[in-house]
Write a structure and sequence with these properties.
Blueprint lengths: L2 E19 L5 E20 L4 E5 L11 H13 L6 E6 L10 H16 L6 H8 L6 H6 L2 E6 L3 E4 L7 E6 L6 H9 L9 H9 L3 H6 L2 E2 L9 H14 L4 E4 L6 E5 L2 H12 L4 E6 L2
Helix pairs in contact: 1-2, 2-3
């Protein structure tokens, strides 16, 4: 293997429900997840000593703590291969710490790419199992498309694809602590939850509007200020611009809206970009 490239797709949470805390300290989740065309490019080269990561974002970790490096190490350990002498280069387009699984998707791309280039012949199911050791979103990112995810996110059931549409994603400048959000969830009694069954029925029927109406993320109910205010304002802007529905993805703070027409999606993107630099127009996969 001289050099290989793989695409890492961003993910959205069409629904996200937290069912409770498990004995192992993790939370039991129920989510409908969807891939979009916003992506990073992952390049792996042979050479150097150990394993290293470079990217166009200087603040990202460059060693084994980077999920992409961790994925390479786990895969090579599982296959009994030597991972010494790998350089991973990340061309990042997916916003970081945004609820879009950018790091997990990079890790999944490493698993798929190395599996192919090293001739390991692992199935996607086997790669997903290795990915569980790297991060909770990695198994989904190995597959992509439209999935129901349970457990920590590793118990996956394929769903009919969300009908193709335009997607506007907007990440406000505020940061969110994922552990803090889980602590907040643990401290409240949730009164509203996603209609996961209804979402599955809408997907089965190919009903884009029905799916958009059922998008819901319980973490929106426990957002601290000023993040909660920014998320609400972005959602309102998307809906007023003609989005069929809008929702926060993951633990945020990125908000997305689904659009049937390019002109409305572009208008929404242009409006939001005046305030929020990290605003993107993409499509579902």
């Amino acid at each position: 293997m001289a050099e290989m490239r793989e695409t890492a797709w961003a993910k959205l949470n069409l629904t996200l429900d937290v069912l409770g805390k498990r004995p192992d300290g993790y939370h039991e989740l129920c989510m409908v997840m969807q891939s979009v065309a916003l992506s990073d490019t992952v390049t792996i080269r042979q050479g150097g000593a150990g394993i290293s990561v470079r990217s166009n974002l200087e603040f990202l970790p460059t060693g084994p703590t980077n999920l992409a490096a961790s994925a390479a190490i786990r895969l090579c350990e599982a296959a009994g291969r030597d991972w010494n002498g790998l350089e991973i280069v990340l061309d990042k387009k997916i916003p970081v710490c945004a609820g879009l699984a950018g790091g997990s998707s990079d890790a999944a791309a490493v698993l798929r790419g190395l599996n192919r280039e090293l001739g390991l012949n692992y199935s996607l199911q086997e790669l997903a199992r290795i990915g569980e050791q790297v991060g909770s979103d990695v198994p989904y990112c190995v597959y992509g498309s439209t999935m129901l995810a349970r457990g920590r996110g590793e118990v996956l059931t394929p769903l009919p694809p969300l009908p193709w549409c335009y997607v506007v994603l907007c990440k406000p400048r505020y940061s969110i602590s994922t552990p803090e959000l889980f602590r907040r969830i643990d401290g409240v009694r949730l009164t509203c939850r996603p209609d996961t069954a209804g979402m599955e029925e809408a997907l089965q029927a190919g009903d884009l509007a029905g799916a958009a109406r059922r998008m819901y993320n319980v973490f929106e109910d426990v957002l601290p200020r000023p993040v909660g205010t920014a998320v609400a304002e972005i959602k309102r802007t998307l809906i007023e611009a003609g989005a069929l529905g809008a929702c926060m993805s993951g633990t945020g703070p990125t908000v997305f809206g689904l659009f049937e027409t390019l002109d409305r999606a572009w208008d929404a993107c242009t409006t939001l970009r005046k305030v929020h630099k990290e605003t993107f127009l993409t499509v579902t996969l």
